[in-house]
Inverse folding.
């Protein structure tokens, strides 16, 4: 049996456990985020039936003809809603586009909400009417699981359990359905997703339809992440690393191409990028700065940081 590359924790010990179980969960999650930046989570509360439904709806969307899919690529939204066609996004340090296309679903608020002008409407697909609605249901489930994980991290950082609550309520999170088509010829230099770090606070990822996800260890090795059944992989994003002055690790990861004999197999992956509201202050926490750990980052808001990074990866012009 393959040795696990990342620790595994049980979220129900935090949400429904006694004081001792909650404390043990907080310690295990904090240690994982500090040392490796990744953790597997079971009993996360996101229904498998909902995940399966969205996988099915996603496959149906990506199977549509190219000209139909492109109708749902909305100019001026920097890929934040609807379809983004193959070859548009690249890693920050790379000029070569990743071998993928994707569809994004974002925050929905009521028409009379003060934040309404901040969040564009989600894109609904006429040929697949249940796709976006199922995605919105999954989005809400991920929001719930993610908020519990951030409550545990806030306790670990001695900030009080509710530190992130108002910052992520109606936040700028994104559910992304990523399709990596079959590889039909020798790629020039790109892999399915070049090495990168995520922009947000934390990412929640359900198991992909095929392998390929790898993380770069502090020992300088690439290791495969193979989640078990009904397990979500969580990783720290750059915003949380920045807030904690590198105490919590935003670990480099990538999606490699399969062996040549599996080039004909597509890959479908569904990450949820948990973002705060744009005005969240990402200035380093005072408790994370001392003589040994001087401040590594200038103050910035989450919105300005996201804007900067979207330009770096080619989604925003």
């Amino acid at each position: 049996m393959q040795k696990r590359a990342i620790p595994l924790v049980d979220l129900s010990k935090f949400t429904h456990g006694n004081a001792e179980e909650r404390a043990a969960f907080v310690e295990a999650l904090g240690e994982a985020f500090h040392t490796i930046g990744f953790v597997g989570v079971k009993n996360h509360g996101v229904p498998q039936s909902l995940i399966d439904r969205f996988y099915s709806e996603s496959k149906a969307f990506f199977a549509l003809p190219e000209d139909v899919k492109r109708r749902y690529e909305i100019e001026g939204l920097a890929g934040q809603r609807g379809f983004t066609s193959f070859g548009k996004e690249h890693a920050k340090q790379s000029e070569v586009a990743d071998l993928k296309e994707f569809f994004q679903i974002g925050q929905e608020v009521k028409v009379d909400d003060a934040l309404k002008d901040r969040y564009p409407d989600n894109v609904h697909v006429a040929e697949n009417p249940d796709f976006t609605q199922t995605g919105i249901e999954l989005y809400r489930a991920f929001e719930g699981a993610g908020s519990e994980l951030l409550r545990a991290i806030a306790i670990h950082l001695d900030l009080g359990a509710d530190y992130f609550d108002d910052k992520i309520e109606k936040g700028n999170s994104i559910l992304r359905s990523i399709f990596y088509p079959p590889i039909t010829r020798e790629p020039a230099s790109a892999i399915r997703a070049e090495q990168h770090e995520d922009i947000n606070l934390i990412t929640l990822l359900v198991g992909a339809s095929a392998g390929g996800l790898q993380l770069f260890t502090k020992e300088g090795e690439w290791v495969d992440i193979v989640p078990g059944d009904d397990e979500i992989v969580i990783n720290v994003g750059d915003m949380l690393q920045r807030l904690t002055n590198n105490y919590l690790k935003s670990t480099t990861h990538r999606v490699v191409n399969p062996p040549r004999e599996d080039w004909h197999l597509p890959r479908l992956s569904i990450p949820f990028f948990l973002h705060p509201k744009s005005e969240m202050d990402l200035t380093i926490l005072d408790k994370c700065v001392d003589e040994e750990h001087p401040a590594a980052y200038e103050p910035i808001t989450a919105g300005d940081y996201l804007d900067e990074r979207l330009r770096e990866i080619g989604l925003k012009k």
User: Anything to note?
Assistant: The first strand starts at residue 8 and ends at 10. Residues 8-312 form a domain with the Jelly Rolls fold (CATH 2.60.120.330).
